[in-house]
Write a structure and sequence with these properties.
Order of helices and strands: HHHHHHHHHH
Number of strands: 0
Largest sheet: none
Radius of gyration: 16 Å
Shape: globular
Mean pLDDT: 79
Helix content: over 70%
Distance between the termini: 31 Å
Low-confidence stretches: none
């Protein structure tokens, strides 16, 4: 398959999953970019630049369908921006890989916990916990250094702690716009502009898929959505753990 259409398909599928489950755009598109031979910093820069467009469209969809808890957006977004700026700077200047296997192990445990807890979920929004700000900073940093991780870290932790899946996904996607703009700006300052031949198909695929996420989250039963989040995060964490361990 031609690289342009491969990236278009990756952008479309990744945003469809991300808008519906609050995670995986960065992980899936970053994997596609690394597969065609781009270095990690350039792949992450491309992902975050594309996400400036896709997350704005996704946030608009979730806001329209009233899936957003603005208190959660504020707590995640402010510290998420700081973490993303630091992470983008670190990846542009220092190679960071060793700690990521521990993150994948954490996600695997949280994914299994979510599957277990999907039988007893919270149907209504909860007051954001005091640790949401720290969660935003850590997720923003890991997202920028790894080209993905904002959704898996934040959505998984929020749903696992009992927050309603619908509002967790909507709030995470909305806060992600601010985080993405910060990371993309820092990457541009550090390593320059990204290649348009890779950026355009990622953006087009993602923007076309973005409107479906808000509708999906609003209409799918919370138990089914929680189970889907658990299955996805377990699968992604197992794949990433295998890759991390094989490369050592």
């Amino acid at each position: 398959m031609d690289i342009w259409w491969l990236l278009f398909a990756a952008g479309f599928v990744a945003q469809l999953v991300d808008g519906a489950l609050g995670m995986a755009y960065g992980v899936l598109t970053n994997t596609a970019l690394l597969a065609i031979g781009l270095p990690p910093a350039h792949a992450s820069a491309l992902v975050h630049t594309a996400e400036v467009f896709t997350t704005s469209a996704s946030a608009a969809s979730h806001i329209y369908h009233r899936n957003v808890d603005w208190r959660m957006v504020a707590r995640l977004g402010v510290t998420g921006v700081l973490g993303a700026i630091l992470g983008a700077w670190v990846l542009s200047n220092i190679e960071v890989t060793a700690a990521r296997r521990f993150v994948y192990a954490y996600l695997l445990i949280m994914g299994l916990y979510i599957l277990w807890k999907s039988r007893r979920i919270t149907p209504t929004p909860r007051t954001p916990a005091g640790w949401a700000a720290a969660l935003g900073f850590g997720a923003g940093f890991l997202d920028a250094t790894g080209g993905g991780g904002w959704g898996p870290i934040t959505t998984t932790t929020l749903v696992g702690s009992g927050h309603a899946p619908r509002y967790s996904v909507g709030s995470v996607n909305t806060a992600e716009f601010c985080v993405t703009v910060s990371a993309a700006t820092t990457f541009f300052t550090e390593i320059g502009a990204v290649p348009l031949e890779h950026l355009i198909p990622l953006v087009l695929g993602g923007v076309l898929a973005a409107p479906f996420g808000g509708w999906f989250v609003k209409h799918v039963p919370a138990r089914g959505l929680t189970t889907a989040v658990g299955v996805l995060i377990v699968t992604l964490s197992l794949v990433q753990l295998f890759r991390a361990l094989r490369s050592t």
